[in-house]
């Protein structure tokens, strides 16, 4: 799909500039971004370490999710011009960028809607799992419930 300009799962640090460049379009009047970073806590507990793992199909599944978001929103006659998404895997430090999604559309409403759907649907449907270790040594997997 032409609107998907960048989609990937990477072990290297993510570049917000790369994602911005991927969604630039002279037909777009609005561009919305979401940047997810590793925080130092979760549910009131201090996080010491965090790692993301992905199923081998995660990249393909991410692209499918992106295609559906673009089709759903554009199908209402409100074209989403370009979308991009990158997710990091491997060991991450507190403050590292874990995911970047962006959407460019003719107007801000569609850009915001597409961006929100992208991050929500990627988190819900792409097989990427987070393993976090807390300050007390306890650990848990997040997103591996199924």
From TrEMBL:
> What Pfam families does the entry give?
MoaE
Q: Which pathway features in its UniProt record? A: Cofactor biosynthesis; molybdopterin biosynthesis
User: What Gene3D superfamilies is this protein classified in?
Assistant: Molybdopterin biosynthesis MoaE subunit
Enzyme Commission code(s) on record: 2.8.1.12
The reaction(s) catalysed by this protein are: 2 [molybdopterin-synthase sulfur-carrier protein]-C-terminal-Gly-aminoethanethioate + cyclic pyranopterin phosphate + H2O = molybdopterin + 2 [molybdopterin-synthase sulfur-carrier protein]-C-terminal Gly-Gly + 2 H(+)
The residues forming a coiled coil are none
Is Transferase given among the entry's keywords? yes
Keyword annotations: Molybdenum cofactor biosynthesis, Transferase
**Cross-referenced InterPro entries:** MoaE_sf, Mopterin_biosynth_MoaE
Kindly state a single biological-process term from the GO annotations of this entry: Mo-molybdopterin cofactor biosynthetic process
Q: Which GO terms describe its molecular function?
A: molybdopterin synthase activity
Q: What does this protein do?
A: Converts molybdopterin precursor Z into molybdopterin. This requires the incorporation of two sulfur atoms into precursor Z to generate a dithiolene group. The sulfur is provided by MoaD.
* Assembly with partners or alone: Heterotetramer of 2 MoaD subunits and 2 MoaE subunits. Also stable as homodimer. The enzyme changes between these two forms during catalysis.
Q: Which family does it belong to?
A: Belongs to the MoaE family.
Q: What is this protein called?
A: Molybdopterin synthase catalytic subunit 1
- Biological source species: Nocardiopsis composta
Q: What is the lineage of its organism?
A: Bacteria, Bacillati, Actinomycetota, Actinomycetes, Streptosporangiales
């Amino acid at each position: 799909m032409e609107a998907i300009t960048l989609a990937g799962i990477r072990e290297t640090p993510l570049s917000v500039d790369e994602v911005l460049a991927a969604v630039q379009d002279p037909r777009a009047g609005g561009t919305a971004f979401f940047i997810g970073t590793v925080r130092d806590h979760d549910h009131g507990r201090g996080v010491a370490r965090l790692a993301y793992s992905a199923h081998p199909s995660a990249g393909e599944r991410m692209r499918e999710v992106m295609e559906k978001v673009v089709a759903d929103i554009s199908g209402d006659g409100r074209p989403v011009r370009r979308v991009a998404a990158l997710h990091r895997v491997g060991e991450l430090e507190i403050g590292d960028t874990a995911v970047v999604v962006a959407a460019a559309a003719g107007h801000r409403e569609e850009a915001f809607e597409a961006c929100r759907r992208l991050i929500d649907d990627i988190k819900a449907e792409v097989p990427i799992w987070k393993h976090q270790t807390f300050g007390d040594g306890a650990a848990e997997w997040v997103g591996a419930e199924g």
